[in-house]
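[scheduler] slot 2 assigned
[scheduler] job type: sequence-to-structure, two independent chains
[scheduler] chain ordering preserved from manifest
[runner] begin chain α
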Amino acid sequence: MNRLITVLIVAFAIGFTGPGFASKRGVNVEILLEADETILGQDFEYPDGKPKITVALITIPPHAALALHAHPVPLTAVIIQGELVVDYEGIGPIRYREGDSFVEAFNTPHSGRNGGKGMVKLLAVYAGAEGVPNSVSVE
């Protein structure tokens, strides 16, 4: 976990100092994702209120699934390990594999499950606001 925190701090430091700083020091910046819409083609919608960023490392064991839920805030994810299958209500499943990056759908009910034999690890970054949940259960 300390390594992950160190990587995030370095990435943010590089972002704040610009690509010129990185190239002068031999640091490589690899853009994992640039997007102007979600995986389902939706425009971004940021919640009102004081901005709050949440970074989470989510681990899903083999044969496990998440309950049906939706995200009222922008969420970007990177699959660090394994395969994640996300079934979007009314649309169908999309399979994400190790190394894939995506911007998750807004307010669209979906459930994710481990689609492989090993653990799934994903890094999730939520661009939310104080008092606004990152995920909500859908009944």
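[runner] end chain α
[runner] begin chain β
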Amino acid sequence: MDKSNIAAIARNLSFLFIGQGASGVILFITMAYLARVLGPHNFGVISFAEGVLMFFLGITSLGLDYIGIREIAKAKEKTIYFTDRIVSIRLLLALLSFVLLIMFVFILRKPLITKYVTIIYGISLFSAACFLDWVFQGLEKMQFVAIGSITRALIFALGIVFLISNQEQVITVSIIYSLSWLASSIVLLIFYIRNIGLPHFNKDLTAYKSLLKDSLPIGFSILAGWVIYYFGSTMLFLLKGEHEAGIFNAAFRPIILMVTGLTLYFNAIFPIISKSAAADMYTLKQVINT
């Protein structure tokens, strides 16, 4: 593994640590504050909505972002090709996911406030579909990934600190959450337009089929990850109620912070691994051993 690759990994890791590491800490502190202000019952409501959103985010993503990172890292000249097609598929999957979420909420036997909060959280699916952090990861411009992560965390944190002061503001919390996703997506879209151009909706069905075929195994692993981290708290909410789920989720937040830290290194090395795999098997083995 040559020095340029080592330097690239160090640079990528530095930006990701600053961005995703800092945003993880900000979100952790913000959620700790929310747990105190909202109390166990209402904190359980927003934690349930977040868990449901994460499941449908898995369907919206379906591993396509990792395929995009891999392909752009291997051939940066194809950035526009893969961005247009992957964002188009993700928007269609977001629409499907939102419809399924609405159907789930309709049959959910919980108070209206829980349904409203879950639906507002679900609106974030469309912003997430347009979140272009994976494009900049593939291009190894991790500074933009950092900006996107920090933007979302800061807007959510500032909105919570300045606007949330009592237990009854769960709807406001959900609106702030959705707006934080929207703002971070817009910020990265602006950077993309300034550096590359305006993305376009593309109806290349052949490319859709090929990309989905590649991404499905990763998509299933993402959904398996949801089972590991969110299924328990979701079932606790449905079976035992808001109060118990709120206490559990407040205690579980440090685990989520640790998981965020563990993903930083993988995200930093993934573009290098992709390029090495495109070169030859010897280079890939060198990178993996290092």
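[runner] end chain β
[qc] chain β: The radius of gyration is 19 Å.
[scheduler] slot 2 released
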